[in-house]
Specification:
Mean pLDDT: 96
CATH architecture: 3-Layer(aba) Sandwich
Strand content: 5-15%
Helix content: 40-55%
CATH topology: Rossmann fold
Number of strands: 6
Number of domains: 1
Number of helices: 8
Length: 201
């Protein structure tokens, strides 16, 4: 599928990433490690901007992405005023599992967890949760709406990021759900291919 050229970033590590909480569309601040990951991405972004020129900079409206985007701008010498927030690239809503750890969810709602594991793609967690087809539609709508005449940079999340990458690469549901979602790196999506960009060790 033809698609715009995208440099895609996941937000830096958060306190809830580290503790195993479901974040969904709620928020937790970046850890010190997460802040350093964002700064590393800023240095990478600076190199890309120097090579390719200024590009549109999209960001999920959730706090962990906005915090990451600001640190990217500070580290990369990028004007934060050009950040464009877009609800379509915010994270999967995890229903009433949000704020609970995975262990707590398993203890409180074992039947829901079993139903989710039986059909991860289609299951909607009670309390407003989203599923695969809903994220697929969000990702496709965003991709169809961004510029095609120049690359874009986007700061998003783990799960919706999988769907953006899967849409560009024409992956099936199983492939999408199995994609790794590291932090502190950039995925370059161009012509149906994906390249990982990271700082040298």
């Amino acid at each position: 599928m033809p698609h715009p050229e995208i440099f895609l970033v996941r937000h830096g590590e958060t306190v809830w990433n580290r503790s195993g909480h479901y974040q969904g569309q709620l928020d937790a601040p970046l850890t010190e490690n997460g802040q350093n990951q964002a700064r590393a991405v800023g240095r990478l972004a600076r190199q890309i901007f120097d090579e390719r020129g200024i590009m549109p900079f999209y960001c999920s409206p959730l706090g962990r992405c906005r915090q990451t985007a600001v640190l990217i701008c500070e580290s990369g010498g990028i004007d934060a005023a050009q950040i464009i927030t877009d609800d379509r690239i915010q994270e999967l809503h995890c229903g009433h599992w949000q704020t609970w750890t995975r262990a707590e969810v398993s203890e409180r709602w074992p039947e829901e967890v079993a139903a989710y594991k039986a059909d991860v793609w289609n299951y909607q967690i009670p309390g407003g949760g989203e599923n695969g087809p809903m994220l697929q539609a969000r990702a496709a709508d965003w991709i169809a709406d961004i510029p095609t005449d120049r690359p874009v940079l986007a700061v998003s999340h783990g799960m919706i990021g999988r769907f953006i990458r899967g849409q560009c690469r024409e992956l099936n549901p199983e492939e999408i759900l199995s994609l790794p979602v590291p932090q502190g790196v950039i995925y370059h999506l161009k012509n149906g291919t994906e390249t990982l960009i990271e700082e040298a060790a």
